[in-house]
Amino acid sequence: MSKVAVVYWSGTGNTAAMAQAVSDGATEKGAEVNIVPAGQFSEGDVAAYDAIAFGCPAMGAEQLEESEFEPMFESVKGSLSGKKIALFGSYGWGDGEWMRLWEADAKAAGANLATDSVMANNAPDDDAIAACKNLGAALA
After folding, report:
1. For the residues 4-27, what does the mean pLDDT come to?
2. What pLDDT sits at residue 121?
């Protein structure tokens, strides 16, 4: 049984709803899933999981949330080489630049992006929820 972490930060609940759908998708495929708020995940936790889904909304000028999520991601990035990961998050404006930058950053760290990232414009609609479940299933 694979062990999957769903690590996320959410301000309005949109990314939290996406995290739950990712968890549901991985659980349906038989994975053991832990949903972890970004502030409670650290570099020492990476090795405990076969795969990790990271979820963060776009903030400010299309960037990761700066007080909890970005510092956590920067601290674990060095441990992601060869690790199966996936990225998801919501945004309210722009064209998804934050996700493209985040994907490039993860790839540069050597992470293995297991599936296409999922973005939802504001609250995730049925299509975004289905895409999140598929993302979770791809990590299981």
Report:
1. 98
2. 95
Residue whose structure tokens are 């999957």:
4
Band of residue 34 on the pLDDT scale cut at 50, 70, 90: very high
Could you give the number of structural domains in the chain?
1
Q: How many residues does the chain have?
A: 140
Query: From the CB of residue 73, how many other CB atoms can be counted at a distance below 10 Å?
Result: 23
Q: Strands of the chain (E only): list them.
A: 3-8, 32-37, 51-55, 84-91, 112-113, 118-121
Domain extent for 90: 3-139
CB atoms within 10 A of CB 13: 10
C-alpha torsion sign, points 124, 24, 106, 55: positive
CA atoms within 13 A on the CB side of 112: 9
Return the CATH number at 64.
3.40.50.360
Share of the chain above pLDDT 90, in %: 95
4 Cβ contact partners less than 8 Å away, ≥ 6 residues apart:
23, 26, 31, 32, 33, 34, 49, 50, 51, 52, 53, 136, 139, 140
